[in-house]
Design a protein that fits this description.
Blueprint: H1 19-29, H2 35-56, E1 60-61, H3 73-76, E2 80-86, E3 92-93, E4 96-97, E5 101-110, H4 115-127, E6 131-137, H5 140-145, E7 147-148, H6 156-176, E8 181-186, H7 195-203, H8 208-222, E9 231-236, H9 255-260, E10 266-270, E11 291-297, H10 307-317, E12 326-330, H11 345-362
Parallel strand pairs: 1-6, 5-7, 6-8, 8-9, 9-10, 10-11, 11-12
Antiparallel strand pairs: 2-5, 3-4
């Protein structure tokens, strides 16, 4: 059994929000309960969630992102110089539109006194003998999604440099709070996977290759000072909102950068259907210590995959990367936003059990 994250059986991070939290959020918005009362309800539900994760057999436990509305905007809006705001339109997800929220940059980006540190401490204190895993958006998400409303940043380079400095502080702050397993979630890479995505980048006056190299530099320099005993992974996502997606295409276009140029300890990759292409891009993995977590079990729908088919795909991936470097997880979280994907809580836990059972068969 693996003793350091990521584990043979792992999870991306988010879980379906309990109805009690959804109702409490509405009550808070309507002024019926206080922020302290809402947090107490979140605390109770997170404790219940962590106990369920332990009971089911996971080695790493998360808080399910229960305190967040979005997987990324809540954190990014808490950076110094950035703020969460009501946008004019939502994001498009394969035919449906999200709520009209966003994050904008109003001043110099920095990291200080971020509320997510206290959120992590709560998880850490209830994790017990299990590893507390915490997820935050990649710094690239502010480059990718942030609306710039300041003259401080006339190009991406200046913003990128300040993001690096801010995230170096963030990594140290989470470490000081006890975090040894931090994950960066990132949808920006998916824009390079399809020809339509590449064309949009060119239309914005960018060179896809140079932009990808910038994203890689931002990641690598952001985590360059991480302590030796801290694991930092990255989940590369193709969009996840109410079981819908935004991007398709193989990792091939920038596979040399993703698999040969990022200094993260592990990559969580979506491979749950044909939208992700084959495993051939894994040939660019050039480090024996880079763990590849195969997201072969979809979190978007409740039907369970044929376990023999999943095992066959793991075997196929092992033709490019040693089986010892591979792990298994759902392809994404179950609720990247508080709305959640279109499956029941029972189906969600069946999915996690499915991952555990298959992994136990493969890595005996």
């Amino acid at each position: 059994m693996s003793t350091r994250a990521p584990f043979r059986t792992d999870i991306v991070g988010s879980f379906l929000r309990p109805e009690r939290i959804k109702q409490a959020r509405l009550q808070k918005e309507n002024g019926e309960i206080t922020a302290e009362q809402l947090r107490a309800i979140e605390d109770t539900e997170i404790i219940r969630l962590v106990e369920k994760q332990k009971e089911i057999g996971l080695q790493a436990v998360t808080d399910g992102e229960f305190r967040r509305a979005w997987w990324h905007f809540d954190f990014l809006g808490g950076l110094v110089g950035a703020e969460f705001y009501e946008a004019e339109t939502g994001l498009q997800f394969n035919g449906i539109t999200t709520r009209a929220h966003g994050v904008r940059v109003k001043g110099k980006i920095d990291f200080d006194n971020h509320p997510f540190i206290e959120d992590y401490k709560f998880l850490h204190n209830i994790a017990g003998d299990h590893v507390a895993k915490f997820t935050i958006p990649s710094p690239n998400m502010l480059l990718y999604r942030g609306k710039i409303e300041t003259d401080l940043y006339t190009n991406k380079i200046g913003l990128a440099n300040d993001l690096i400095a801010a995230y170096q502080k963030a990594v140290q702050a989470f470490y000081d709070a006890g975090c040894r397993y931090l994950q960066l979630d990132d949808t920006s890479w998916a824009s390079f996977f399809s020809e339509s995505g590449l064309e949009k980048i060119r239309e914005q006056g960018e060179s896809p290759r140079k932009l990808a190299e910038l994203y890689a530099r931002v990641i690598n320099e952001s985590i360059a000072k991480k302590p030796e005993d801290m694991t930092i992974t990255m989940h590369i996502c193709r969009g996840n909102f109410q079981s819908m997606f935004t991007s398709s295409g193989s990792y091939e276009n920038i596979s040399d950068i993703i698999f040969g140029g990022l200094d993260v300890d592990s990559l969580f990759l979506e491979f749950d259907d044909e939208r992700s292409g084959g495993f051939e891009p894994l040939r660019h993995v050039n480090r024996s210590d880079l763990k590849i977590v195969l997201g072969l079990i979809t979190s978007k729908f409740g039907d369970l995959e044929n376990p023999e088919n999943v095992k066959a795909r793991i075997k196929e991936a092992s033709e490019y990367v040693s089986l010892d470097q591979l792990c298994l997880s759902p392809q994404c979280g179950f609720a990247s936003t508080e709305e959640g994907n279109k499956l029941t809580e029972e189906q969600q836990w069946d999915k996690v059990r499915h991952v555990i059972n298959i992994a136990q068969d493969v890595w005996k």
